[in-house]
User: Fold this.
Amino acid sequence: MIQIKGIEKKFQRHQVLDGVEVSINAGDRIALIGSNGAGKTSLIRCILGEYSFTGDLKVSGLDPRKQRVDVLGQVGFVPQLPPPLKVRVEELISLTAQLMKVSVDKIRLVAEQLGLDITRHNKQIFFKLSGGMKQKLLIAIALARDPKILILDEPAANLDPDARETFFSLLGNMPKETVMLLSSHRVDEISGLVNRVIEMDQGKVVLDNPYVPSVKKGA
Assistant:
């Protein structure tokens, strides 16, 4: 689904990605871990076609820079920091539903499961919502699409405990073939969802192993 070969990325003289090689197949549920500045978000932005890079990167055989619209048509994405969109909630949902060919009702349903009543906030400007509300709405938009690839960058950071529990339950019910790439500082929180761990440090992949949850003694 995602093939990454020798990806390099620099911001001026700072190397943020250094020869990254990763192959991601259907059904891979990956915890992407590493300290701040390790390169996790930069790698995600390259996959989404937002950053230029050297090397070779294909998403379902497509070039994310040259065929970005087609790539994004397969990807559900939740960023770490919600964008400062100056549109009303109802406008954002309507536009997203049209572009992604998903029903408004399905987005509303997922949002309600997460504890967000969209109807009450329809007229509000998106960037004026609380951090938790923004995150719930972005998650609802991403999950409602039933994407082939789901990329989540610290997606639960602003969620309340009940919403976190519901969110992880929804992820657990995604189709088995769905690719998940979850960037997180807390592997324990997503341990029930992933089957593989990729660790990055200083722009390099330093670990890429199957994930085997630890078994407590006496269990």
Residues 84 and 127 are 5 Å apart (CA to CA).
